[in-house]
Design a protein that fits this description.
This protein has 224 residues and is α/β, with parallel strands linked by helices. It is 41% helix and 17% strand. The protein contains nine helices and eight strands. The protein is globular and about 45 Å long.
């Protein structure tokens, strides 16, 4: 077993143990391995070890990896910001899009060739330049637009805890917004939150999808 595969197994075991401590079903938590900048060979090693969910955030790299691994039993998650003019191309290989944050992206996906699953990205900072909606009202308005789009299945909300902030407080806010969303869209119950440094707090707040990179893949190579 490769080093990355061994780390994946260790992280999965930790997640499962924490789920049991929280009296949650481990099968209800998806562990997404974020493989940005890492080679296809690493993904193949992780597949052999049992990993099935992989996250990418750069379309140029992700599309090449998806092509190289076509036919493999895996799910691609796009976890980076989506440019409207690339949304249709991303939807050709990505099964789950974690960063739906504005009308133009949703409108572009309305003409995608295949159906995708989507999360509404929340902006937990005061910076309007960051991706994500900034309020419950914005979230609900975008959710209505997504729900009226035949090519997108709304799964729930996604967020990143602001650097330097208390992740517990950040993910409590995510849980509150998720609850508001599910009141209007009962099927949109999933929460994509938690990374290598804060996944325990996210899990305690109800996260169903953890996006783990460095703890599994190791340090990223210098980008090309």
């Amino acid at each position: 077993m490769s080093e990355a595969a061994a780390r994946w197994r260790a992280v999965r075991d930790l997640v499962d143990a924490e789920c049991r401590r929280l009296e949650r079903d481990p099968a209800g938590v998806t562990l997404i391995v974020v493989t940005k900048f890492h080679p296809v060979e690493m993904i193949s090693e992780l597949l052999e070890a049992g990993a099935r969910d992989f996250g990418e955030s750069r379309h140029q790299d992700a599309s090449l990896k998806a092509e190289a691994l076509a036919g493999q039993d895996l799910t691609w998650h796009f976890v980076g910001q989506i440019q409207s003019n690339k949304a249709r191309a991303i939807a050709k290989y990505a099964d789950v899009l974690h960063s739906l944050d504005r009308d133009s992206v949703v409108d572009a996906l309305a003409t995608a060739e295949r159906r995708v699953q989507g999360f509404i990205e929340l902006n937990l900072t005061d910076d309007p330049g960051r991706g994500g909606v900034n309020s419950a009202d914005e979230m609900l308005r975008l959710a209505e637009r997504i729900s009226s789009t035949e090519t997108i299945d709304l799964r729930g909300v996604m967020a990143v805890a602001p650097l330097g902030d208390d992740p517990v407080a950040a993910f409590d806010r995510v849980a509150t917004l998720s609850s508001i969303l599910t009141q209007a869209h009962p099927h949109a119950t999933d929460i994509s939150a938690g990374m290598s440094a804060d996944w325990e707090a996210a899990l305690a707040a109800g996260a169903t999808h953890l996006r783990i990179g460095t703890s599994i893949t190791g340090n990223r190579p210098i980008p090309r």
